[in-house]
Task: structure prediction
Amino acid sequence: MPRKSNRKPSAKDTRRLLPGALRVIRNDLRKMSQDDLAQAAGLNPSTVSRYENGTAFASTDAMHRIAEALGVDLDTISYPVHTVYVTADADAVA
Result:
């Protein structure tokens, strides 16, 4: 079974958009189209579509602009990503 190594993850807090949350807030709560959100956030509509489908990752700047355009906190549409380093336990593999 893998176990955590002694290496610590980077202190940098990286975030990723929650595609489902983005779609629900945009469509159901704000009644915005992808085009409306793209225009308000200064993004291309196809980019917003890829973010919602989870086929592209937004930059920190884009996430902030999307959150502002939707009138929500960044935490509402994203989750923190923490890097975890694992090493194989040689006894468990053998």
